[in-house]
Amino acid sequence: MVGRVISAYKENPITLLAYGKINLHLSVFERNLGDRLHSLGSLFHTISLADRLTLTSAKAFNIKIIPFDQSKQSHSRRMLGAALASNSDSNNDWTYRADDKLYKDNILVRTWELMKERYRLAGEVDIVLAKGIPLGAGLGGGSSDAAALITWVDKVYALRLSMQEKINLALNIGSDVPFFLIGGMAWITGIGADIHSLKVNLVSLTDRNNSDNSNNYGNTTYLPFWIVENDVLVQTKEAYEKFVTYDHYNTYNNLKKMIAKCIHLPQATSTLKLNTDVKDKKFSCRSSVKYSDLKQATQIMNLLKKQATNAFQNKLLAASEVLANIYDHLREGSEYVLLTGSGSAFFCQAAKHNMEALVRVQGVRAIYPIEFTDKAQRFL
pTM for this structure? Predict the structure, then answer.
C-alpha cells in the first residue's frame, strides 16, 4: 500500500519549532571489542534555542536553508552583544540539490529517503529550514530537525506510528534523534536507545512568570542560563577520535542515584545491551512522576554544579586556546560551566552583567539567554 498525503495537508505548509538540547552531564565509556559505536551516559534537557522547519508536500524534493527570523520564535532567542555571525553561510540562503556533494550526507535527506522507502510514500517534500541552532556546537540541531521531519510525515501521511516504531526509525538516522521525539529531561544510556525520561521540570528554573524565582533555595539565588557560541567548530567524529576522556560506569550510575534520591524517585537501572545493528535494538523508555516544583529543580541543579562533568571538556580546553580563554572568563562568574555535548558551545548559569563583559572576549560569537523546555518540538 502506498502512503499518500491527507487531502487537508496537500500543498499546505506546516511549521514546527525543533528545540535544541544541552548535556547537563556527559560520560563516554570505552567500546567493547567489536562495537561500532561508543556507549554514552548523559543527562539531556531540551532548551528554547530552536530551528524552524516549514514543510510542504510537493512534486519535487527540495531543502532551502535560510537565516532565522527571531521575531517568529515564541521562546526567547535574543542575542546579547554582537549579531550572530560568522559561519560562512549563516546570513545567506542555501539550497541543497541532488547533485551537491553534501546532499546525501544531509540528515533531512537521509530521514526523508528512509521513510519514503519504508512506508512507500507518494510525492515529495519541500523543506524550508530556518537555522536558529548554531552548527557544530553540540546542541543537537540536526537530530532535532530529523525528529521534526518524522513527526511531520507521521501526521500528514496519517501513518499513526507508535513511539516504538518512531524510535526504531530514528535510531537508523542518528543516536540523538530518539530523544528529540520525547524531549524534556532524560537520562540517555548506550547509543540512544535507552531513554529514562524523568519529566522533571527544570522549566521552573527559567519560568519568568514564577514569582518564586527570586527566592533562595539551597544557598543558590536564581540566575539566568546562557549558551555561549564561539568561533571553534568541533566535528563529532573528530571529538570522539581525539578529545574524549573515558569514564567509569560507576561514576555515571552514582550520579543517577544521587539525582534519583534528590527528587525522591526510584533509581533507574539500565538494561541496554549494545548491538552494532540498531535495526534489531529494542527501545526502552521509562517515564517517572512529573515534577514542577522550583525547590526540587534547584536541588537537582545544585547537585549538578558539584558532580556533573563532560567527557570532552578537558582535552578540548587543552587543545584550544580560544576555548580555554572563554572557559576561564566564564568560570569567574559562574559555578556551572560545561561544554554542550561534544562542543564547542558552552552552557552556563550567570548574572547578565557577567555575560555582557564576555561579549568582548576573543572568539565569542554570540550569547543566547535560554529557557528549559518540556518538549522537543512544537507546531506553530
Answer: 0.84
